[in-house]
Amino acid sequence: MSFSKVNIWTEIRDYTLLAIAMISYSIGWTVFLLPNNITTGGIAGVSSILFWATGIPINVSYFFINAVLLLFALRILGLKFCLKTIFAVTVLTTSLTIMSQYITVHLLSDQPFMAAIIGAVFCGSGVGLGLAANGSTGGTDIIAAIINKYRDISLGRVILICDVIIISSSYFVLGDIERVIYGYVVLYVTSFCIDQVVNSMRRSVQFFIISDKYEEIGKRINREPHRGCTVVDAHGFYSGKEVKMLFVLAKRRQSDVIFRIINEIDPNAFVSQSAVIGVYGEGFDRFKVRNKTPKKIE
Questions:
Q1: DSSP state, residue 237
Q2: Between 228 and 134, where is the model more confident?
């Protein structure tokens, strides 16, 4: 199996983003939520409840529960997803161990609502960044990724539904309905941040490029950002000339590369760029179609 330079750099980028995402999540959990007795969803919430009830360290329970879930997820999500998730769980477990032993910061102890908001932003941004890098923090993220693979359902919404029971059950340990409400606030803000981060990372753009040097521009776009180009026959209404127009779909982060290529080859080219809500197909997202059984007409 051969790997191109682009694939290698993509993998390095994904693993780097995963490491940053897990550190962000561990900060939100251990610095803002756990010291203020505010639970969150997923395996993190289960680990928090076990910690308050039995004293089992959160890094221990978090690691072993995820290890069991990953064994079931390996077949459904594939080795690539699970490898990145294993990496993410390992980084998060390590950072949790370090922070719980060496960083004893208790911020906003007299402002639990602000602690819930800030902690949720750190956690939600971490989860969203991890999912955008084709990995996850494990737990209910794995369930959400499985459902999102086959159904066009928001990742944040799936996690929101899965985690309500976990947060509600924290009442039996803490005995404080106010902390449960804070947990719901954390859940809502987390799911909102997940959707915002994932959608921003997956945004695409489309280009319409009119230039006499369309062939050279198209070849460069094929070679550097590795995006396909479609040549469209067009007719200039004012000039009356037949022109060639390139139609290009690309990730938003590749816009600068495409503009640089156009500027180097033909600075006088006419270029139109616009945002695209969704792009499906090879190199982009997969189709998510809900199969419905047709009703039988009697």
A1: T
A2: 228
Of the three residues 174, 201, 228, the one that is the final residue of a domain is 201
Residue 187 bridge partners (DSSP): none
The domain in which residue 264 lies consists of 204-276
Write the pLDDT tens digit of every residue in 3-22: 455 567 777 888 888 889 88
Amino acid, res. 178? E
Looking at the DSSP bridge assignments, the partners of residue 276 are: 204
If asked whether residues 32 and 119 sit together in one domain, one would say yes
DSSP assignment of 107-140: --TT-HHHHHHHHHHHHHHHHHHHHHTT---STH
Buried b (16+ CB within 10 A) or exposed e, 45-64: bbbbbbbbeeeeebbebbbe
Residues 186 and 252 in one domain: no
- Whether residues 140 and 44 share a domain: the answer is yes
290-296 average pLDDT score: 45
- Could you tell me if 40 and 48 are in contact, meaning their C-beta atoms sit under 8 angstroms apart? yes
Whichever domain contains 239, its CATH number is: 3.30.70.120
For residue range 221-260, list pLDDT tens digits in order: 888 878 888 888 888 888 788 888 899 888 877 888 888 8
- Indicate whether 296 belongs to any domain: no
Give the Cα separation of 149 and 153 in Å (integer): 9
15-30 exposure pattern, b = at least 16 Cβ within 10 A, e = fewer = bebbbbbbbbbbbbbb
Candidates 159, 138, 141, 149; CA nearest to 70 is: 138
Specify if 135 maps to a domain.
Answer: yes
